[in-house]
Amino acid sequence: MTLSHAQTVLAQDADSWAGQVRRTTGGLEEMEFLVPSMHCGGCMRTIENGLVKVEGIKAARTNLSVRRVAVSWEQGVQTVEGVQAALESLGFDATPFDPRLAMGSEKARSQQLLRAIAISGFAAANVMLLSVSVWAGFFSDMDTITRDLFHWLSALIALPAVVYAGRPFFYSAASALKARRMNMDVPISLAVILASAASLAETIRGAEHVYFDASVTLLFFLLIGRYLDMAMRGRAGEAARNLLALRAIAATKIMADGSRVSVPVDVLRPDDRVFVAPGMRIPADGTVVEGASDVDTSLLSGESVPEQVTQHSQVFAGTLNLSGPLQIVVTAAKDDTVLSEIARLMEAAEQGRAGFVRLADRLSRVYAPVVHILAGSTFLVWLLIGAGWHQALMTAVAVLIITCPCALALAVPVVQVVASGRLLRHGILLKSADGLERMAKVDCVVFDKTGTLTDGTASLVNGDDIRPEDMALAAALGSQSHHPLALAVAKAGAGLAHPELGAVAEVPGFGMEARLDGKTVRLGRREWVGASDVVDHGGPELWLAVADAAPVRFMFKDRLRKDAVEVVAHLQRLGIETRLLSGDRKAAVEHVASQLKISDWRAEARPQEKIECLENLKAQGRTILMVGDGLNDAPALRAAHVSMSPGSAADISQRAADFVFQGDNLGPVADGIWTARRARSLVFQNFGVAFTYNAVAIPLAALGYVTPLIAAVAMSSSSLIVTVNALRLRRSNKDMAKKDEA
Amino acid sequence: MTALLLLIPVALFLGGLGLVAFLWSLKSGQYDDLEGASRRILHDESLDDEDEEDSQDRPL
């Protein structure tokens, strides 16, 4: 990457990022960069301290929560590419972050919620203090003047707080009513407003009971639930946006006069000439016009052996250029590109998802009418049996307050926040807000093969048969290349003393060549070293040739992820059906399936066929989790009920998936299902608590037994119980396998 | 009971102080990066200090 930037003409690039760079006063430019590999305090320090030492950079501030760094530099002295190169020289891959992706309004909303929480919390604490004194006064000898003073003080604190902190609910309720709909916020607003208004009237009358404490505590608890829900959605959205930004990697465009300019990928047009340095992803579909190389197409086709490309070869966006510099011409056939076909399939698959309604939403559809009917009928019945309208109204208000969904509103968000936090600690990123709920229902897991069940990189299988000196030589050669097979050899021979090689050269598309003691040594393709008459072993291979001696063969295989067998067996024990659906050759798929004891497998499936296969399973009533990493899996990831992809997956697949997991293990799949199921059972337990509470409290309220004191105790305790219950998910853990079997 | 006339305003004032402090900290961006802030407290240098890396490596 750094190489290509050095070759780029820096003077022209300011225009291509125009609109993304923020100009501030004093000739400074400001921009955010996404740094996905920043993960600890040390990284933050390295980046901040390293960047400010670079010429022209005035300030750098990292944000670890969103993995971004905001940099400001002097206009004309420093550039976007310069900062990016500086970050890379510090050891961090960085991508300019398009500010259009940043959700400013979301942040403003969450800050407004926090302010509302603070104010309602302040009011709740102080009003409660006064209320407790009044309640204590019932049993001692508080005179009415002091009591009225306390009520007035409560009103003074509570009313402004209700007006301010209640706005999120009032607005939402108003817009729902305007659209002639009902939502959870209508009964909430009604309860809060009626309780406050009635309490004010009671205060003016000098009466005994007021509900100011109830209305502010209610708001306080509900706002917490609302904020947690928002925080979880925000975090999921942040993950999705970061992935979106990753795609906008710069491409090096070659202008008519031969100069090279770094531009964002989306400004590339057909017939543009693009330079792709070794180690970079190819930015667009195109034809090679100059150079030869190996291209890693594993994300596109699931094939783990790199493809050899020369002039006139077709190359595809998202594949990785390994060994030699390439110049490609972007092809015009826009709708025929692999990417756009996949995008079309994904769009179509998306429609199947629309029917899902979140649990909380389903509940609130029932909840709102029930509460209104209960409160309304309480009012009417009390009137009919001859109570005054005042008493009837106060009883109805008590019913509204007591049924207010504190526990319900906390029941789901608290569990979801705890669950997504737990997943994050296990390296699983939740990307869609309803992912957990979808995941909990899964009864069938469909795996892709390459890069999902296997780790997607070749590893040496016949290392023991190779003489140490050959191994050392091959490793010395291999370590100079980006080619995955060469890297695998280098890894296998890492512990050996490497011989001194003179002038190592990579011959793109063929292999590595060097001089050793006056002799030519080569590591590469079989034809190239002159070993074409040996029987194929059925997998990728490399050959080492020293001058005229017989060439040595290195054989490779794509290995299963370390814990793949256990995870698949574990899922099967849980009664979850496991299937294998791959685009790879039949023999390779059959081999993996038999190793994992997966009886239902299918090979050579095209993206369209993968979707059809999932649709068939759906029609049989299965709820499917799709786990895949390739570009060819992306439509299937959208078609499945819920989906996961490893962090090594194609960007588009990561964007399509509901969950992204890091690391070399398959364990996160089982872990994700377990956490989701546990979260669901906790949510139901919490609903149970809330329901029991209501079943006891509503009759009491309707009969007029609920005083402000009882309301306060009942509401607080039910909210506490659901919160504590949700927190159990944090602790329950390590031996999840044992627990599942128990 | 006259003590209340003093104590209640005092309690409200102190609570209000906490509320104002929170609103200020929210406004000044201290809640923007909770994860990063928890790591930042472990670094005790200022950016201008050239020797910071040596002092960091020294055992306490």
Number of helices of chain A: 26
**Strand runs of chain B, count:** 0
Which regions of chain A contain 5 or more consecutive residues with pLDDT less than 50? Answer: 1-14, 734-742
Strand order of the largest sheet of chain A: 15-27-26-25-16-23-24
- Bin the helical content of chain A: 40-55%
Written description of the protein model:
The complex is a heterodimer of chains A (742) and B (60). Chain A is 51% helix and 17% strand. Chain A has 742 residues and is of the alpha+beta class. In chain A, the strands form five sheets. In chain A, strands 15-27-26-25-16-23-24 form a seven-stranded mixed sheet, with helices on both faces. A six-stranded antiparallel sheet of chain A has the order 7-6-8-14-9-12. The longest helix of chain A has 36 residues. Chain A starts with a helix and ends with a helix. Chain B is mainly alpha-helical and 60 residues long. Chain B contains three helices and no strands. The radius of gyration of chain B is 20 Å and the shape is elongated. The interface between A and B is medium-sized, with 25 and 24 residues.
Q: How would you summarize what this structure contains?
A:
Chain A is of the alpha+beta class and 742 residues long.
